[in-house]
Records
---
Amino acid sequence: MRLVICDSNRILGEALGAVLRARDHEVVAVACDADDCVTTVTTCKPDACLLDVHIPEPEDGFRAVREIRTLCPGTAVLVLSDLGEWRTYSQARTLGVAALVGRDRSVDQVTAALDAIIDGEGVFDPGPPRESLSTAVSAGLTPREAEVLRRMVAGQDSQRMASEMNVTVSTLRSYVKSILAKLGAHTRLEAVALASRAGLPDAAPAAELLRPPAERGPLHST
């Protein structure tokens, strides 16, 4: 497999390249930042790009992933990342990477992931525990945002949410925009999926929100 490796630490990138060459992979280049990575991939058009998303920050790494997926759709992207942060895990999955492997994995495991990509399979290390996502959802949102998120999970549209919460549609959209930013989601659908995975801590069940206001229990109102 023809590979481009991207790691902000050139020594580590070159060392990994040497190991992979010894295992019959053709490492055509090593890049050290997001811009260099995108330029190198678009020039070399490798089969895969092995990218440490922390180059030096995940925002830079994921920007590189987006551009590679757009400019070189034929290049598979294998992301190396710390998987303790659920937002990072979610973003990698959303961007359609071919594989997501923890940075603490062995070279054997990285090689196995590359072999799986060759066979057309996706490889994803287990995501962070459900509890960490639950904590992030419950702690990161204001009470009003948490209510909007619960209503989104219940399938309510913007007009109904705004009406029942006694706010304007414009204000409601501001809440939604903030929720997406805090959850690291790009769409309402993704935010709902994340919230459902978290188990919506301290949230009323979706069915509760669909009942008439006079019959349902209290919601956050501040």
---
Amino acid sequence: MQIVPLSTVHIGEIALSLKAIMMVNSKPGHQITISLDNHFRLLYLVSGEVEFLFYGNTIPTRSGDVLYIPSNTTYTSHWSKTEMSSILMIDIALADGNGNPIDFGDTARILFHDECHIYNEIRNDVEHLSWDIPFGWMERMSVALKILGYIARDSNSGSLGEKYWKIRKGVRYIEENYTSDFLISEAAKLCGMSPGYFRRLFVDLKGMSPVGYRNKLRIQKSIELLKSGQYNVTEAGQAVGIDDVKYFSKLFRQTTGALPSKIMER
């Protein structure tokens, strides 16, 4: 177990403070009582089973659960007596421009269950963090933001059920590679299914095709670039993976109802 030095960054008006990010591995039967400070805690149970006790309330967790624990909470954890358990843990605090905390509420709860164990890839990110290099805190903050972003999105998508989790890796692949002309088969392969089945589930979930979703992400990003005043129409199109300025303008108008040059004038 390794605690990182406290790091704080400001993203727009949001202040983000990272206190700890680590993997916690324990032998069977481990028990510990912990009191949190003003940082809330997110736990992803990689393997095993752990029971958490909060003022008489008990929350049992199993592999794949993502547990949220509010700040300033005292709790006791009882780890499985029959097997080793492994947990990804992050302690973080968020505040808006007025200093008001941003979190997942005042009650400890399981945010969602990762049935497909997609979050195991984040475990790899944490295990390979650098601890003894200059600006290593920047790498840790980057991983923390990635984890927080995934959890925030997935906690709001739990109601979508099994369909969402079946294609989550493919959705994430598109969101991280939308500026490239990827093949649908590549996203489908990550989900262990045929391109046709992936496309059907995707349309059911998103209401549009994977290519349509990619184009939507491209146009959303290009709007940000154009409004920044640092990109002209051609440069904004190229930045999101569209070199043909005529096609970019056509797609932009189909998506927004306006030409990209009009966005620049606002």
---
Amino acid sequence: MLASWYARSARELPWRHPSASPWAVLVSEIMLQQTPVSRVLPAYTQWLERWPTAAALAASSPGDAVRAWGRLGYPRRALRLHAAALALVAEHGGEVPADRAALRALPGVGDYTAAAVAAFAFRQRHAVLDTNVRRVLARAWSGVASATRAVTVAERQLAETLLPDDDQLASVVSVALMELGALVCHARAPSCDECPLADRCAWRLAGYPASTAPARRAQTYQGTDRQARGAVLSVLRVHAEPVERSALTAAWADGVQLDRALDGLVADGLISPCIGGKFGLPT
């Protein structure tokens, strides 16, 4: 049922195309973390045009990766992807491994990303539990409005039992669950009339009981240290050479917050202090 719905309704995304390499799938999964598809698409295309292989990225500097990351947000992902490329070249001949444990050992690759790459790049049978999948499982099978904050053992076991034994079909069901959550089973206004699981959805049959989970506090951005960090990186991305602190002050006037942002960016490896009190992207 899910597989046939997916065949009819899925979006055409480049990382799902049969020609997409395992490296392309890995790039997409890291870019898609906490970032919507609409923002990822142009960055993904430009990234793979420049670095179509792990070896190509590994031959560039981490600063090049941070610069190319642009305004996708959470730029440490660029450093982790660069570190993963170095590890792939050093340990796997530049190829993305099919083994989930080997994927998990790559820098910046957690349980979710390792499972996603194994499932989507290598058509293996793995439960892939992103936010969308977890919401579908919570509603359709557990009868609650939303999933818990952290993945539970019971939730993972449920996801595993729902997958067909056939690896190829299981990988399709994994991505179909994800697409169902993204396109139909929305967090706030699910389109139940369009859902292939509507007749068996436990949450719908129970009358849509409200969530009992504590409301999540909305994250702010304006005026935060995160915005200050972004302002610093925006300046450094357009300069090939390190810049004076005065150029950064022009981008962020609050000196105390700027110092805090600079200290954090240096600690994270996203920028480097240079001679003369200048700052630049890592080389």
